[in-house]
Amino acid sequence: MNYLVTGAAGFIGSHVSQRLLSAGHQVVGIDNLNDYYDVNLKHARLDLIQSPNFTFIQCDLADRQAIAALFEEHAFQRVIHLAAQAGVRYSIDNPHAYADANLVGHLNILEGCRHHKIEHLLYASSSSVYGLNRKLPFSTDDSVDHPVSLYAATKKANELMSHTYSHLYGIPTTGLRFFTVYGPWGRPDMALFKFTRAIIAGESIDVYNNGQMRRDFTYIDDIAESIFRLQDVIPQPDESWTVETGSPATSSAPYRVYNIGNSQPVSLMAYIEALEDALGTTARKNMLPMQPGDVLDTSADTAALYQVIGFKPQTDVKEGIKRFVTWYREFYRV
Ligand SMILES: NC(=O)c1ccc[n+]([C@@H]2O[C@H](COP(=O)([O-])OP(=O)(O)OC[C@H]3O[C@@H](n4cnc5c(N)ncnc54)[C@H](O)[C@@H]3O)[C@@H](O)[C@H]2O)c1
């Protein structure tokens, strides 16, 4: 099958592209290779994808003509849309980057899907959409109308925009609410990467909210496997669905939203301890207050995911962190 993967030079996009290629599919990967973090890492991820079935095109999601031409040129059957301006904290100071990549960009992808009868669009949402929700574990059956960062608001907006296109044009769409993804080839702006770099350099690490946070840390291979299985689960309209009686994660349109998380939340201090063990050293910790836009706890209810794909993320953080550290030491030769 012929796939478009957006954000192919990114952390999740590069892994998903490899997973699709290893199953014999054709993949066109796009990415604008922006410098939000080290561009060399993005190039290195692309260098890993060695397959005659892979074509890389550098282009910007927000470039309406370029995205329209891309869909015109390639007869995509399925689209896995992972490119976005990521990061909660960066959205406090750089809100417009999120409007361009996540709102205009998402609309351009939806338009491409609309005009080229795409069989299935899967797109990245985020656990951050749960915002002020306090009921744990977070369930896709609960409403998510109170985001606490612009990043989260754009991800919720992506779900709303997708629902509209599923309803109006019958495009099957699946939203993927990822919970803190980590692992080899990860993102330098995320805690595990920053902690590892600092600890190896003998610097102290910044621990927010005095470490009083819990996260559902999800290993990258589990994310790639979940997406790989979900792309075959094409949403169907649920004729019996009503706003009053149905779940927000489903609809009378061919629309679904799933949590993809480890469903075993770990405290930030336990996560740091696992990293200290893997590195064989103790970190000096700089205890800081809570950051604006952050949430205290995340925990995924993955029952609906398991029901449709017979799989749920389950890699133990100690094992996942060990694999990350092995990769980090090898890649940076430290
Ligand atoms: N990693 C996580 O923990 C996590 C959690 C929840 C949701 N997500 C979402 O999953 C998706 C993938 O995240 P990731 O961790 O791989 O991030 P990433 O930053 O590594 O990958 C995103 C890629 O998109 C590209 N990109 C950004 N703006 C673009 C634009 N305007 N045009 C073209 N390309 C553009 C970037 O260059 C990057 O390579 C994102 O949508 C992110 O918001 C990630």
What's a quick, concise take on this entry?
The protein is α/β, with parallel strands linked by helices and 334 residues long.
Description:
By secondary structure, the protein is α/β, with parallel strands linked by helices. It has a single domain, classed as NAD(P)-binding Rossmann-like Domain (Rossmann fold, 3-Layer(aba) Sandwich). The protein is built from eleven helices and 13 strands. It has helices at 11-22, 39-48, 64-73, 90-93, 95-115, 150-169, 191-200, 220-230, 268-279, 303-309, 317-332, and strands spanning 2-6, 26-31, 54-58, 78-81, 120-126, 173-178, 181-182, 205-207, 214-215, 218-219, 255-260, 266-267, 285-287. The strands form four sheets. Strands 3-2-1-4-5-6-11 form a seven-stranded parallel sheet, sandwiched between helices. Strands 7-10 form a two-stranded parallel sheet. A two-stranded parallel ribbon has the order 8-13. Helix 2 links the parallel strand 2 and strand 3 (54-58). Helix 1 (11-22) crosses helix 8 and helix 7 packs across helix 9 (268-279). The chain is globular, with a radius of gyration of 19 Å. The mean pLDDT is 97. Nicotinamide-adenine-dinucleotide binds at residues 7, 9-13, 31-34, 42, 60-62, 82-86, 101, 105, 124, 126, 178, 180-181, 187. This is UDP-glucuronate 4-epimerase. Keywords: NAD. Residues 4-230 form the NAD-dependent epimerase/dehydratase domain.
